[in-house]
Amino acid sequence: MKIKFLPLIAVLFAATSIMTSCLDNDVEQITYTSETSITGFSLGTLHIDRVGKDKNGLDSPYVDTLDCSNYPFTIDQINRTITNKDSLPVGTYIDKVITSITYDAGMLAYKPKGSERDTIWTSTDSIDFTDPVEFKVYAYSGVEGKPYTITINVHKQEPDTISWKKFDTQLFNAGNLSEQKAVYANGKVYVFGKNGNGTHIEYSDVSNDNPTSWVAVTKNVPADIDTYSATACAGYIYFLAGTNKQLYKLDVNSNEITSVGTETFEMLIGGNDIKSELYAVKEGEKGRKSGIYKENTWTEDANPFTLFPVSKPFFSNTTTASYNSDITTTIALCNNPGTTANDTAALVFNRISSDNKWEKRMQNLPLPNLENITMIYYDGKLYAFGGGYKEIKPFSQFYCSTDNGLCWRPVTECMAFPAEVPDPEKPNKEYINFPNLYDTHHGNYSCAVTPKLESETSRGNFIWIVWEDGSICRGRINRLGFTPKW
Which of 133, 266, 444, 485 has the fewest Cβ atoms surrounding its Cβ within 10 A? Predict the structure, then answer.
């Protein structure tokens, strides 16, 4: 109910104290507290929008209940604010909220939405918190407490869903590029690619989470670059070029290119940033053999691996072993060029630094042999995607591995390439259609990942997909962009 006589009640509180003090000294005097603090705040059961499956297996929205009693609220007694730093799930209704509040002796009042008058709070009140609500405590002594502002935060996005945006104005200076390989380094996405005029290197600055126009690298660029060999390692981008496939490195600070040593290689498989070494393959008299190139020194593996396919882009990732920080595990992946009926899975290789040898990974749940396949390390997991394969359509889904490439499971929810995604920047609701983009750009694309930027905890963590013409699709799991509250 509305407190029409709230001032009168406060006067009565004060008068009671005065009358008591005027009585005979034999009567015990009562002193009323003037404390006006809220000491505890929690929520009850709220309603939330959900999507489930109906009897026909189709998505069907419904309203569910959500126990919110365990969501912690922070009470700032200095600034008189109360809020939940851990936001409620997206879709939670906060227009009819039952609260549990503890406070100092007296009465608790609040100002309902759209009202200028205070109302006495009771534990059964259903309160609209779509806007912050003001609460205050009236002490028995007659003191009116300074108001608290209570805000209930609700996520605006599904935390584990990936959101996409397309940039159409960033186009390559060199025209359409095929045989692409994208590499992230020093706040930039570099793309190595080919067209009718030879091989090219261009980069876009993505350090502020938005791509700049493409800039061509033109100084000391060698001819006949093996674009698939581009590999980031220890602050440089290494690649092979020339008829003899000599090793070069690109300084990501100055964008200058210099040759490295005198060794020549057949392929670069990947780089190990942790140990600052390159994994390469040399062509010898007895075939291709694997080894390590570190500090201008080539060391052939004791048991050289000879089964790496040529003319394929390799995608690799290195992590530290959980049981020993001195040991690293590197996973490399590429498309399977085989022609037999059994060549239905992509090729996965693994290398443990303590063994100094490569092995072909025997996959328990194989990764389909997708056309133009790509592997990325994102959100602590390996993900693979690419063009079509048999009944699988291009860019229809991600495949995920959490066990270093042993098992690959299709991702069916959240982390996805939906066929029709409304572009939030387009008022006419244009759609981002990944399968169509793949076909339109003749299967030519490349991908790089922005790591988490430690200095900006809500920045980075983006997936950058670069298409044939230089246009870009940028994606990120929503929760990886949330600003930490704790």
Answer: 485
**CB of 109 closer than 8 Å to CB of 119:** yes
Rounded to two decimals, what is the model's pTM?
0.77
Note the pLDDT tens digit of each residue in 256-293: 999 998 889 999 999 999 999 999 999 876 778 999 99
Largest Cα separation within the chain, whole Å, is 116
Closest CA to 397 of 379, 370, 424, 362: 370
Beta strands in 242-286, from DSSP E residues, in sequence order:
246-251, 257-264, 267-272, 277-284
DSSP of 346-397: -EEEEEETTTTEEEE---SBPPB--TT-EEEEETTEEEEE-S-BTTBPTT--
CA-closest candidate to residue 480, choices 273, 83, 209, 187: 209
For residue 193, list its beta bridge partners: 200
Handedness of CA 393, 398, 402, 404 (dihedral sign): positive
Rounded Cα gap, residues 350 and 229, in angstroms: 18
Which helix H or strand E contains 119, and what residues bound it? Answer: strand 119-120
- The chain-wide mean pLDDT, for the chain, equals 88
Task: Give the tokens for residue 135.
Answer: 């609460």
- H-helix or E-strand spanning residue 76: strand 74-76
Which position has the token pair 């690298």? 217
Alpha-carbon distance 467 to 168, whole Å? 10
Burial of 484: CB neighbours in 10 Å, binned 0-12, 13-18, 19+: exposed
Of 318, 307, 277, 308, residue with least CA distance to 404: 318
Within 196-345, strands assigned E span: 198-205, 215-216, 225-233, 236-241, 246-251, 257-264, 267-272, 277-284, 287-294, 297-300, 315-321, 324-334
